[in-house]
């Protein structure tokens, strides 16, 4: 938005009022006032393909911690193990194939929220879907097995408005 304005204003000025074009050329010089924020926003991550490359270091760290918590894993579940000699971790490396799977998962989760849930009118629950919605602290979301329904407790086709009795599923 800002960038758009910044580049359009001189063009507009130059086109409409050629006399002012000298002024217009000096205008962009004031624009870098926003530079400190932009610097903070671009901490130079090397290999972001799905997360915005304007993400701040803090926000990236938060996202990564959320991944570890939501999946119940350590960083190395997705990232390449640290160099055994230098002990340095190369987080930009794609050597661990799980990282690529995680990229699809990030996009899938964003799509669920932005493309699908965003279409639902009058949502009662506006919490976004997160990795944890499915993973629940597990690497592989477990299969959901509903508790057995009691025989004959409802007519066929009747709406299941009443929750099934809270009997524990067989272990
Ligand atoms: C569930 C998988 C997963 C876990 C767990 C995970 N990450 Fe990531 N991480 C990724 C993915 C995927 C990317 C690349 C995102 C992209 O392509 O936009 C990434 C990118 C990064 C980057 C940016 C590297 C660069 O320069 O491109 C850093 C730094 C990072 N992770 C640190 C961590 C740390 C520290 C942890 C542990 C606290 C962690 N990650 C846990 C999946 C994960
Ligand atoms: C809609 C449900 C759902 C959501 C949301 C979801 N996942 Fe998944 N995820 C799955 C399923 C299903 C699998 C496949 C599990 C399997 O292979 O047994 C999976 C597998 C994965 C794997 C592969 C694990 C492996 O062993 O290779 C990773 C990594 C992963 N998810 C990360 C994420 C991350 C990170 C997020 C959030 C950005 C996320 N998932 C959100 C359902 C989901």
Individual helix count: 6
Which spans have pLDDT < 50 for at least 5 consecutive residues? 1-41
SSE-based structural type: mainly alpha
Apparent shape: globular
H/E series:
HHHHHH
Mean pLDDT: 78
For CATH, the homologous superfamily of the domain at 41-141 is named as Photosynthetic Reaction Center, subunit C, domain 2
Name the helicity range. Answer: 40-55%
Distance between the termini: 56 Å
The fraction of residues in strands falls at under 5%
CATH architecture of the domain at 41-141: Orthogonal Bundle
Main β-sheet description: none
- Report the top-level CATH class of the domain at 41-141: Mainly Alpha
Indicate the CATH topology of the domain at 41-141. Photosynthetic Reaction Center, subunit C, domain 2
Q: Are any ligands bound, and if so which?
A: heme C
Radius of gyration: 26 Å
Compute the number of strand runs: 0
């Amino acid at each position: 938005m800002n960038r758009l304005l910044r580049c359009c204003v001189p063009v507009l000025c130059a086109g409409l009022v050629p006399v002012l074009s000298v002024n217009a050329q000096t205008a962009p010089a004031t624009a870098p006032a926003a530079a400190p924020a932009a610097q903070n926003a671009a901490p130079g991550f090397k290999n972001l393909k799905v997360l915005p490359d304007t993400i701040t270091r803090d926000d990236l760290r938060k996202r990564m911690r959320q991944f570890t918590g939501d999946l119940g894993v350590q960083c190395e579940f997705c990232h390449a193990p640290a160099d055994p000699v230098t002990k340095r971790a190369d987080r930009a490396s794609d050597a661990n194939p799980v990282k690529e799977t995680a990229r699809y998962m990030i996009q899938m989760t964003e799509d669920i929220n932005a493309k699908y849930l965003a279409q639902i009118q009058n949502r009662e629950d506006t919490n976004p879907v997160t990795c944890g919605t499915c993973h629940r602290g597990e690497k592989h979301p477990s299969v959901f097995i509903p508790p057995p329904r009691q025989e004959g407790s409802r007519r066929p086709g009747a709406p299941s408005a009443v929750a099934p009795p809270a009997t524990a599923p067989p272990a």
